[in-house]
Structure formats: C-alpha cells, structure tokens
Amino acid sequence: MRIGKFLDVVEAPGIIGTAMLALGTTPVPHIVTPDDHTAHWLLPRDAANRRPWPWARISRYVKVRTSVTEFGVPGTDLTDGPGPHWVYPDGWDGGHVADEWLVEDLAVCTLGHLGPPAQRCELCPNPLWPEDGVRVVRSRSPLRTLPGNTIRVHPHCARRRGLKPRPGGAQLRAAR
Ligand SMILES: [Zn+2]
Known about the structure:
Strand order of the largest sheet: 4-1-3-2-5
Oligomer: single chain
Number of helices: 5
Structural class: alpha+beta
Helix content: 10-25%
Largest sheet: 5 strands, antiparallel
Shape: elongated
Strand content: 15-25%
Bound molecules: zinc ion
C-alpha cells in the first residue's frame, strides 16, 4: 500500500491507541507497532489539511506523516504478534481508513494521557505550547490601552514586533 500518494499516516504513542479503544468512539482500527510503542491510523491523503488547526494543536503528540513513501501496512487479518498488526475496535465499521474527524477523539485522548493542547498565538498561525507563551500588552484600540489588555504570544513573535513581555508572564510560566 502506497503511503504518500493516496494515504497519510497518523502516528501517536502507543498509549493513545489504547486510550482510543477505551474511548470507543472511533470505528476504524489502528496499527500497533510493538517495537517502538507507536500506534498508526491511515488517513486519506491531505485529509488533515481540511481541519488544520485541530490537528496543529495536538501536533506535539500526534504526527501526520505525509512523506512516508513506503509504510509497512500489515495484512488486515493480522491482529497479533511481535510485529506491526491491526487492532480492531468494538463497533468496527468495516473500514480501515479514518477521516479528518479522527482528530476529535485524538484530542480527548492526548489531553487525558499526554498533556494539554497548544493555544493560538495571537501574532502567528503556529501552535503556542503552554510553557512557551509570554504575555504582552497590545491594545486592540489604537486610542487607549486598557488594563489587562494583554495577549499570549510566542517570545520570538513578541520580539519581532518590538513588544516587551510583561513581568507577570514569567511568573505565570514558573507557576505551571
Ligand atoms: Zn507566534
């Protein structure tokens, strides 16, 4: 099976595969690779790009691999063994390929088992991870600055705009 032409591969730590089975709302199976404790789902090529932000905000935990030209997809009847094999959920719908909504359940499972999702940086489209943000004052009105009128952004995004992080931002980071 060619990955990269028709299919992408979603890769997550093995615990997420287990958590998805326990959650029980994803009707497609995944591939378990015991050697490196990973779980993989197949996605139609570019499906994740139809919902870019939901995928980006868990991209620390879940990778969508689009450049894997050959990915060893085991035979669909291979459900056990030391090598890569399929794990079928209760309520399997008969298919082997997920869709872009897979990200909803992945978000639930990564939050529960790995950590919080990224937030939006208010200055760029890239995910902002909880420990990375700084708070800067940035009034949305050019005429006045309201107290507490701050936004959370990447440090490098703040620097690029000449915005100084507020001291409180550092305390916030230390508190986490
Ligand atoms: Zn940014």
